[in-house]
Design brief:
Largest sheet: 6 strands, mixed
Low-confidence stretches: none
CATH architecture: 3-Layer(aba) Sandwich
Helix content: 25-40%
Strand order of the largest sheet: 3-2-1-4-5-6
Structural class: alpha/beta
Number of strands: 6
Mean pLDDT: 95
Number of helices: 9
Distance between the termini: 27 Å
Order of helices and strands: EHHHHHEHHEHEHEE
CATH topology: Rossmann fold
């Protein structure tokens, strides 16, 4: 089994950000949430107030103005081309994606890409989390809940913040665009805010 991060790893961008901007274009009422999103982004990222989960719940308030599954389907009909070439070449049907992005956004990819998705459980209507943001050590917790004894052959991510998952794998890679770089186990992300 191979395990992958999603955003900027097998997908060229950040899918949550792309979906938010897609909604700004296709659901103009979502633009009304920009001041609130900006306020909580500054509060979390600049002043280090609150948690990543708390910030994202505030950001996801825009979902109240979205047409749920239909908009997610329309979004992927436009954005599926953003799956990277390297991934298309190495894809296997037992691949698992473990991502901090919301599950409702990535779940449709299970059928489209023939993969398994583990992601943050976010209510598509309210933006509220069920549990923690699927980030850093939480990714291992969520993965092991579904695959307690699985042997991870290879792990791929664009960020060293995924070191806990990399440590499960026989071989791990940092993904930089389409380039795969051997994981540097001497490099550790410290002071990660969750």
């Amino acid at each position: 089994m191979n395990v992958f991060d999603f955003d900027k790893t097998i997908y060229v961008s950040d899918s949550t950000k792309d979906f938010l901007f897609w909604c700004f274009r296709h659901r103009p009422k979502t633009i009304l949430y920009v001041p609130k999103i900006g306020f909580y982004a500054v509060r979390y990222y600049l002043f280090h107030i609150g948690t990543k989960t708390g910030f994202k719940e505030k950001m996801y308030g825009f979902l109240k103005s979205v047409n749920g599954e239909k908009d997610v389907e329309r979004f992927w009909s436009e954005k599926l081309s953003g799956i990277k070439t390297f991934y298309k070449k190495i894809h296997r049907d037992d691949d698992v994606i473990v991502s901090a992005s919301p599950e409702f956004l990535l779940k449709p990819l299970e059928q489209k890409l023939h993969i398994r998705v583990i992601a943050s459980k976010v209510d598509m209507r309210t933006g509220k989390y069920d549990g923690e943001n699927c980030y850093h050590a939480e990714k291992v917790k969520r993965f092991r809940a579904l695959y307690p004894d699985a042997q991870v052959e290879e792990f791929y991510s664009d960020s060293y913040s995924d070191e806990p998952l990399a440590l499960l794998a026989q071989k791990a890679y940092i993904v930089d665009g389409e380039t795969l770089i051997d994981w540097n186990y001497d490099y550790h992300k410290t002071n990660l805010r969750t």
